[in-house]
Amino acid sequence: MRYLRLVIGSIVIIGALYVLVAEHVTGASSNAFVNAPIVTVRAPVAGDIEMPSRTVGMQVSTDTVLFSISDVRADGVRLDDLILEHDLALSHVERLKAEKAVLEDHSVWLAEMRDAYAAARTRELAYQTEDPVDPLPDLTDPEKLEDLDLEDTVRNASNVDGNAGEDTAQASDAFSSLKALQLDTARKDLFLDDTAGAAWNYAYWSGTARQQLARIEAELAEAQAIATSIDDRIARERVRMIRLTGGDIASPVDGIIWERMVGDGINVQRGDTIMKVADCSAAVVSLSVSEIVYNRLRTGDPAIFRFSGADTALEGTISRLAGAGAATVYDDMAVKPSKEHLERYDVTLIVPDLRGADMSGGCAIGRTGRVFFQDRPLDPLRRLLN
C-alpha cells in the first residue's frame, strides 16, 4: 500500500510538472496587440477647410462627411459659356417648334382650300354640262395626250365668230365638247378653265408648305441634338468644377479617426494631409515570437488569440511572416511596435472576429494579448469552462 501511494504521488507530480512545462514550452507569442492600417485623407484641391465636430477616436463610416473644402477662386468661365450656349440652343429649338406649329396649320388650311375649290368647281362644271360624256384618257400619259386633239377643240370653241362658214350647231357642239373636257379633267384635279389659277396656287403652296415642314423638322431634330450635346458637356464641366472647387469629403473606410492634422477654417493646399482614419474593417493582430517558434510557422497556419485578462479564444490565421527588424511594415499601421518587439521575429495574424460590424471601443486597436500556435494541455479544460 505504501508503494502504491508512492507510485500515485509520483505520477501526479510528473503530470503536474508536464502541464507546467508544456504550458510554457508550447509555441506562443511573447506579446500580441490589435492593429489596423491607416488611411490618409488628403485635400483634393486647394481651399478653405470647413470641419464639423470631428474628434480623435470618433467612429466613422463610409457615408460620414469628415470635412468640406471649397475654393472660391476656381475659374467657372467655361461653365458659364456652356450654359449660355445651351440657353441659345434651347431658344433655337423653341423657335423651330413655333415655326413648325404655324406651318402645320397653314399646310392644313391650304389642303382644305384646295380640296374645297376642286369640289366646288367640279360641281359647277357639272351643272353647265347637261349631257354625260365618255371619260377621257389619263391626261398625265403623254402618249394618250398625243391622240387627243385638244387644240382643235379649243380652236373650234374660241373661233366661232371668225368662221363664218360654220353653222351654229357646230359651234354649240364644240362648246359642249370643251365644257365636257373641262369637267372630266376637273374630276382628275386638273382644271383647264380660266379660273384654274387659284386652284393651282392652293396645290402649289400646299406642296411647298409640306417641303418647308420637312425641312423644319430636320432642323428641329438637329437643334435638339445640339442642345443634348451641350447638356452632356455641361454635366462633364460641372464634375470638373466640383473637383476644382472641392466639396464634401467622406470617410473612405469604416473605422475611427486616428489623427487630425488641421482645424476648422484653415486654408490648405492640394495634397495636404487633413486626417488619418484607422480602417477597422482590416484589423489584424501583430505579434513577435522567438526564432525557434518562428522557423516552425508557415503562412496560412491556424493560431489562437486571447486578450489579456479574458478567457475567450479567437481563431485566426497567419497572414504574414515579416521576420526580424520589420519596422517598415508598420509605417502605415495605427500602432507602432516596441524596440523589444523588433528584436524578435514579426508575425501578422488575421482574426475574422476582430473585423465584425461591432466597432465598439475603437475596434480594439491597441489591446494586448497572446497568440498560441499549438494546443496546450489545459485547453480542453478552458474550453469546458467557457
UniProtKB/TrEMBL annotation:
Native source species: Maritimibacter alkaliphilus HTCC2654
Keyword Secreted: no
Residue stretches in coiled coil: 206-233
UniProt entry keywords in alphabetical sequence: Coiled coil
Superkingdom field: Bacteria
InterPro entries, per the entry: UPF0194_transport
Official protein name in the record: HlyD family secretion protein
Subcellular location: Cell envelope
Cellular component, GO, one term: cell envelope
